[in-house]
Amino acid sequence: MAFLCVSTFPTTSLSPLSPLSSKPPSHRFKVSCNASSDDHPKTSESPNLILPMQNNNVDRRNLLLGLGGLYGTANMTNIGSALAYTVTAPDDISDCVPASSLINNLDDVVRGVACCPPPSPAFPKPYVLPSFRALRVRRPAHKLTPEYIEKYKAAIAAMKALHEDHPHSWKQQGKIHCAYCDGAYHQQLSENQKVEVKVHFSSIFYPFHRWYLYFYERILGKLINDPSFALPYWNWDNPMGMMLPAMFEAPGPDNDLRTNPLFDPYRNVSHAPPAIVDLQFDDKEHGRLCVDQVSINLCSLHTQMVRTRRTDDFFGCDPDPKVSTCGGSIENGAHTAVHRWMGNPRMANHEDLGNFYSAGYDPVFYVHHANVDRMWHIWMGLKGKRKGPSSTDWMNSSYVFYDENEELVRVYNRDCVNMRRMGYMYEASSIPWKESPPIPRVKASKVALKSVRSVKKAEETEFPVKLDKRVNVLVKRPATTRSEDEKENFTEMLVLNGIKFNSEKFFKFDVLVNDVDNGIQTTATSSEFAGTFAQVPHMPGHKMFITSGASYGITEVLEDLEAEEDGHVLVTLVPRAGTEEATVSEIKIELLPID
Ligand code: C2O
User: Fold this and answer.
1) E strand spans, 178-273
2) Atom in ligand 1 nearest the alpha carbon of residue 199
3) Which atom of ligand 1 is nearest to the CA of 336?
4) Per-residue pLDDT reduced to its tens digit, 178-221
């Protein structure tokens, strides 16, 4: 099955930076990809109010680090940072800050924010990977047999039946996500430097979630006494799997949705099947034709998977106390989109999946993340030099979990790089996005040259630039017309530094290169679309500015656009969501080694 990323726009006679005048051709039939009905009703679950709130609308990281002046200044780079450290969850898990103490407005928080785990009589033991008879095989959720679905439901039902203080209970498992992303744990880097243990927006993202799912799967297997039990994966990268797997929204035995253990009331019900997932979701409904949505999804994955050659681009960079975030292409792309697309827009914080504090309470989280984990596995096997993170800090970073025997254990990144050693694998599913590159809207447009009078060069631009509206800037390239040999070893990267935004809100902007349409209608199906930057909000009621870096490979983009001889490129940043207060402090192009 090969999908072509077909542009529905004419590809000639466009003037620089003027909106396209012609409309896309009309199609023979119109099917909306979105079912329309009301959201799931709000249930009576009440918020878990614990502590009085603090009233500090300040950047908490600044306080923690005592580095107030550092943030938001120029030269926040994520490239070549030398300030990495070994992320280490505390031995004493009672040394935990309930997220509720950090939140200003608890009224709208429908899930518990007391994220600390149940106490343990002992400190964690180093985990030893157990031996096993057969690999657990994770299968695409849309291909499960009815028997397997029943087994999976029985396991989740058993988890939900446990007392909520049990470390294996649905609630405690859900809390793990909140604890590791909403600042429950801290570590001391030096005498006067303390940082949050954070598992998002960096190269820690993949290994942490791999371990999280690993124990979750083993706990479910133990609950139904089936050592071969494997989590299904939501195969959203294949057109056959682009709907939410039906089992999650099927009624239970008495024809009542609520008796299905896989059901969660906090989802966007208009995204139940047959809606097709939008892997560029920006909190808006675009009413696209299914074929267009599928193309956008496949091209997005091609860009985020195939066109990310460098380890840092795919995984994100190692955590650095100086830069709050620098996530990888999938984390900032398809992963965030699925979270937001699934969360309930009628809830103040888009619970459950639309906000990190609540994401772990929806069973969909784990099948979504199984596919994210599978992306790690697939990326390593793609053509070209592909290498996982290898720094000592990364290898030795560690987290603490209760295993399936209720034993508190410490696990290290170095022990999760080989999933077969961990005892599981993924059943293959075809990968059409490999052969689905975006296609150019306009070739050899010379748009950078033609825009010289209307658009400022980066060096003439006053940084930081605000993202409250589209940003256009001409950026000089370090080299033109590069040889194949050079391209083998160095990739041309568009680097954005000092992306500063309010992490309480969903935040997304797109990055376009040489787009003659000024980002008005261009989508991820076009080569001009170099990538996106999207982050799931991670703490409700707690305004906190964080600073990030991001980089986008443009070698293939410029080849596609026949712009390899151009000295400058026209960069357009298109705000999509939550960008009102956001700024970017540097935009440049660099040649970076493919490690
Ligand atoms: Cu911990 Cu999808 O996030």
Assistant:
1) 186-190, 193-196
2) 1
3) 2
4) 999 888 999 998 888 888 899 999 999 999 999 999 999 999 99
96-121 tens-digit pLDDT: 987 766 666 677 788 877 899 999 99
Rg (CA), the chain: 23
Q: For the residues 363-374, what does the mean pLDDT come to?
A: 98
| pLDDT at residue number 183 | 84
156 pLDDT more than 90? yes
Positions marked catalytic: 177, 200, 209, 335, 339, 356, 369
Q: What one-character-per-residue DSSP string does 411-476 give?
A: EEGGGSS-TTTTTEEE-----GGGG---B-SSSS--HHHHTTTTS-BGGGS-SSEE-SS-EEEEEE
| Ligand 1 neighbourhood includes 339 CB (under 6 angstroms) | yes
Q: Measured from the CB, is residue 538 less than 6 Å from ligand 1?
A: no
On whether the CB atoms of residues 242 and 341 are closer than 8 A, the answer is no
Helix axes 205-223, 170-181, angle to 10 degrees: 170
> Ligand 1 within 6 A of 222 CB?
no
Mean pLDDT of the chain: 86
* 177 C-beta closer than 6 A to ligand 1: yes
Cis peptide before 352 (omega within 30 of 0): yes
Q: What's the DSSP call for residue 300?
A: H
Q: How far is the CA of 200 from the centre of ligand 1 (A)?
A: 7
Ligand 1 centre and the CA of 197: distance in Å? 14
Angstrom CA distances, 8 to 14, 198, 295, 439, 441, stand at 15, 42, 11, 11, 9
Q: What is the pTM of this model?
A: 0.89
Q: What residue type is assigned to position 449 of the chain? A: L
Q: Are 302 and 437 in contact (CB under 8 A)?
A: yes
199 CA from centroid of ligand 1 (Å): 8
How far is the C-alpha of 476 from the C-alpha of 499, rounded, in Å?
20
Token pair 């997220």: residue: 99
294 CA from centroid of ligand 1 (Å): 23
Q: Which atom of ligand 1 is nearest to the CA of 208?
A: 1
Q: Measured from the CA of 339, which atom of ligand 1 is nearest?
A: 2
Choose among 525, 519, 526: nearest CA to 576.
519
State pLDDT tens for residues 49-98. Answer: 222 222 222 222 222 232 222 222 223 334 444 478 999 999 999 999 87
φ, ψ of residue 218 in degrees (nearest 5): -70, -35
Q: How confident is the model at residue 543 (pLDDT cuts 50, 70, 90)?
A: confident
Report strand pairing: 186-190 vs 507-513.
unpaired
**Nearest residue CA, atom 3 of ligand 1?**
356
CA of 340 from ligand 1 middle (Å) equals 11
Burial class from Cβ neighbours inside 10 Å (0-12, 13-18, 19+) for residue 206 reads buried
Question: What's the rounded Cα separation, in Å, for the pair 329 and 520?
Answer: 23
Tokens describing residue 475: 């950026």
Whether 210 is in the pocket of ligand 1, judged by its Cβ within 6 Å, is no
